[in-house]
């Protein structure tokens, strides 16, 4: 094979620059793949301060560079991490300065797990870690609420069902409907503001119901978003979450004090049944009457038994016995006093006779006398104890004789 030199020269004159070739490739690739779905595993993930996400999307046999610009990354409902299997939609882009191509991702979701479900799991784990779902935080509902608040859409079937059941069960409660959107972008924030407004109502509400009718997970998603869940957890008023139908479960259900399967069941949980309360009061009244009748019967039997006893049958018998006993004790006392008096008089007479026999007066009665110095009262025992002119007093049995010593012998 031979090549004509002039042809080679002509081809050389028509050679493309690298930029021209890259531009053609860029146009061809980007025009051919304006939108494409790609599945693969995330690796080499990075997210600089710019907020853009860079990673490699790979499978067992190939790989491609990928980027998620910050605006698209903020709309993702899950975090991109190494090893995560995802399905993403984007377009191919050729980066001329490096001569490489990459996938510019507009949206993505985990492979096998929907993005909403993954976002729900992520937020649930976060709030559960903070303790917003703890059982210790749950408060009991008041038994007989007077004022009930209902945060919901005023045009939905939920509020009609709720009011109908409430009217049938307990018509005396006052209901305040706090209107709000219950689905769509921004609905969660509106629900949170409605809950905060309900907590400022005066007079204060006794219980607050937050809910809506059933729907798809997208319809109920506002009750899975952080603002509404945190507002329910922070409510000063005991809350009931009544979102969707029996099979629907939202994060608001976990944060509320009580979960109701439906708005209708919320009405049943919030107020008692008038029929049941009436039946209960009737039953308790009958039991109370029975107890009172038994007690009255027992009291009468006890009173009859007491009436048959001697103190009540003869109420003055004890007084008569006491009076008789008192008379006996008085007679005994008098006899004892007389006996003691006689004994004391006999003892006194004996002692007097004994004293009389020892008394000096008794000696004087037998003819003796006692002489004392009149001035000093000193006893004169002998003539030698006297002196002339001394005045003496001589005690006789029947009187005293005064004398003066005429001379000393």
TrEMBL record:
This is Exodeoxyribonuclease 7 large subunit. Residues 16-107 form the OB-fold nucleic acid binding domain. It comes from Pseudobythopirellula maris. Residues 132-348 form the Exonuclease VII large subunit C-terminal domain. The keyword Hydrolase applies. Its main location: cytoplasm. It is found in: Cytoplasm. Keywords: Cytoplasm, Exonuclease, Hydrolase, Nuclease. It catalyses: Exonucleolytic cleavage in either 5'- to 3'- or 3'- to 5'-direction to yield nucleoside 5'-phosphates.
């Amino acid at each position: 094979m031979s090549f004509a030199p002039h042809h080679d020269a002509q081809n050389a004159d028509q050679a493309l620059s690298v930029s021209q070739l890259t531009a053609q490739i860029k146009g061809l690739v980007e025009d051919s793949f304006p939108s494409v779905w790609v599945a693969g595993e995330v690796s080499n993930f990075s997210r600089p301060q710019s907020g853009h996400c860079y990673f490699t999307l790979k499978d067992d046999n190939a790989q491609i560079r990928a980027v998620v610009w910050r605006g698209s990354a903020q709309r993702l409902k899950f975090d991109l991490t190494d090893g995560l299997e995802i399905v993403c939609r984007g377009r191919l882009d050729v980066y001329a300065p490096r001569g490489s191509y990459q996938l510019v991702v507009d949206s993505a979701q985990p492979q096998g797990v929907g993005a909403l479900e993954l976002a729900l799991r992520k937020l649930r784990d976060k709030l559960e870690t903070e303790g917003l779902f703890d059982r210790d935080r749950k408060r009991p509902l008041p038994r007989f609420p007077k004022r009930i608040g209902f945060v919901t859409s005023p045009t939905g079937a939920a509020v009609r069902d709720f009011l109908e059941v409430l009217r049938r069960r307990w018509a005396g409660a006052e209901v305040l409907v706090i209107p709000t959107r219950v689905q769509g972008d921004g609905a969660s924030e509106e629900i949170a503001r409605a809950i905060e407004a309900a907590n400022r109502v005066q007079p204060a509400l006794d219980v607050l119901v937050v809910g809506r009718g059933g729907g798809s997970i997208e319809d109920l998603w506002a009750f899975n978003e952080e603002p509404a869940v945190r507002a329910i957890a922070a409510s000063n008023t005991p809350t009931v979450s009544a979102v969707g139908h029996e099979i629907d479960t939202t994060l608001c259900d976990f944060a509320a004090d009580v979960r109701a399967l439906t708005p209708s069941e919320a009405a049943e949980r919030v107020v008692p049944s008038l029929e049941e309360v009436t039946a209960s009061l009737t039953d308790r009244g009958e039991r109370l009457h029975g107890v009172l009748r038994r007690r009255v019967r027992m009291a009468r039997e006890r009173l009859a038994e007491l009436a048959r006893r001697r103190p009540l049958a003869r109420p003055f018998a004890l007084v008569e016995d006491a009076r008789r006993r008192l008379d006996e004790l008085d007679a005994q006392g008098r006899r004892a006093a007389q006996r003691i008096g006689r004994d004391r008089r006999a003892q006194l007479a004996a002692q007097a006779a004994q004293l009389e026999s020892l008394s000096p007066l008794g000696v004087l009665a037998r003819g003796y006398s006692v002489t004392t110095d009149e001035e000093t009262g000193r006893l004169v025992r002998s003539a030698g104890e006297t002196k002339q002119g001394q005045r003496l007093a001589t005690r006789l049995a029947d009187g005293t004789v005064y004398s003066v010593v005429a001379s000393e012998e």
